[in-house]
Write a structure and sequence with these properties.
By secondary structure, the protein is an alpha/beta fold. The protein has helices at residues 12-21, 53-59, 69-75, 119-129, 162-166, 192-207, 222-228, 257-266, and strands at residues 2-6, 35-37, 44-48, 64-68, 80-85, 91-98, 113-116, 134-137, 153-158, 169-178, 180-185, 210-218, 236-239, 245-253, 270-276. The protein folds into three domains: 2-88 and 179-206, D-Maltodextrin-Binding Protein, domain 2; 91-178, Periplasmic binding protein-like II (D-Maltodextrin-Binding Protein, domain 2); 210-276, Alpha-Beta Plaits (2-Layer Sandwich). The chain is globular and about 80 Å long.
Amino acid sequence: MRIAVPNKGRLHDPSMELLEHAGLHTVDGTDRKLYANTVDPDVTLLFARAADIPEYVSDGAADAGITGLDQMREADPGNVEDLLDLDFGQCRLVLAAPEDGDIDAVADLAGRTVATEFPHIAETYFAETDVSPDIVEVSGATELTPHVDMADAIIDITSTGTTLKVNRLAVIDEVLSSSVRLFAREDVVGDEKVEQVVMALRSVISADGKRYLMMNAPEDKLDEIRDVIPGLGGPTVMDIAGNGKVAVHTVVDERSVFETINEVKQLGASGILVTEIERLVD
């Protein structure tokens, strides 16, 4: 199985970290290389521009790929399936226009000009809104086009909205909510190795923000302790010979750890241990 991964930019490091945490460690480095082997002899990484990954997967150069939903929707390969939201790289593709202009709604763009790096997404969006502006494809600095009379509005990526505010642009509508996803070609979806990779990546994502909580607890307080532990599917309870206590193990949300420890301690729990979880397999 060959997985296409962004070769640089803001998506490269998080993608590689996720693969490493999932157990797919590279064994021969990545600097200036097109390919890298992993510890799994059946899994190879292919490094490519994020925008090119949909085509690599669609054409068979890779079986799966990691890239933004925005890139996949723009390429629109047709034979590629979205398998898993990798929970990073969140951003929005928005329609925006000058704050002091006369464009306040999508309908105001009839007969006007919209600049974007995502012409296919823009065409699809406007087809659904029954408005037909002229769409101008640009390759960068989209937010400047309304100020140099190249366009009346833009469709562009925003994460925090800071760039739009700096350029005095107001959001008219959200076109697409995007994050980084794992995609695969339709003819390999369901293959054993693809399913293994999906499970490994999902286990890392599921473990994020979770903690493993262990304690010794009085057996006669077990029902009360169960009531205050916000665990996944209830705690695991094991007998401890001879002292009227049981060992309680559970997975809790990181945000609940402080309150949970205080509550179980008041009920007589001792030897409380909290550890990080690298992977959580359902």
